[in-house]
Amino acid sequence: MLFLDISGHKAPKRRCKDAVMWFMAKYMPRHKIDIEVHHRGLLREGVYGWCSVTDNDHRPRCFLIEIHNRLDIEQYLRVLFHELVHVHQHVKGDLRDKGSLRLWKGVDYSESDYQDQPWEIEAHRTEKVLFEHYFTSKL
Q1: 67 to each of 37, 47, 117, 138, how far by Cα in Å?
Q2: Predicted local distance difference test score (pLDDT) of residue 139
Q3: Strand, helix or coil for residue 24
Q4: How far apart are CA 21 and CA 15, in angstroms?
Q5: Pairing of strands 101-104, 33-40
Q6: Of 22, 78, 91, 138, which is the most exposed, with the fewest CB atoms less than 10 Å away?
């Protein structure tokens, strides 16, 4: 079961809902997850998207995804799928926040550079595949 809340300026609500529902049905059909997707300007932060756990670190089920509100369709979907991969990583327990530590499969990567973080490597690789599968399924 999924609770989805979509908000923000210039939010592509239909596209967002369709993509999130597709992802959840395919990759987490039995999980009870709350996802809030908020669209806002993120240029000052220098990113296109964020994913945050909003309940607890032990067994997270509530997430906030923030996405930059001025992306073209392909960029938008790739960023959304990238952040949904992070949701999946948290739910599976591969990615965990423990206080100030960032753990990947039990190993502390808190001091790693962004491009060396294994969860980011997986999310970048997977976003492309998800984007292609999503569009193929819609044809």
Answers
A1: 7, 9, 20, 23
A2: 64
A3: helix
A4: 10
A5: unpaired
A6: 138
Sequence-distant (6+) residues with CB within 8 A of 5 are: 34, 35, 36, 37
Alpha-carbon span 131 to 7, nearest angstrom: 22
Three-state SS for 61-119 is: CEEEEEEECCCCHHHHHHHHHHHHHHHHHHHHCCEEEECCEEEECCEECCCCCHHHCHH
Place of tokens 């970048």: 124
- For the segment 54-81, what is each residue's pLDDT rounded down to a tens digit? 998 788 999 999 999 999 999 999 999 9
The two tokens of residue 31 are 């999980």
Contact call for residues 118 and 102 (beta carbons, < 8 A): no
Summarize pLDDT for 4-31 with one digit per residue, the tens: 898 887 778 999 999 999 999 999 999 9
Structure tokens at 138: 């819609």
- Read off the pLDDT of residues 109-130 as tens digits, 9 standing for 90 and up: 999 999 999 999 999 999 999 9
What distance in Å separates the CA atoms of residue 43 and residue 67, rounded to the nearest whole number?
A: 10
Could you report how far apart the first and last alpha carbons of the chain are, in Å? 26
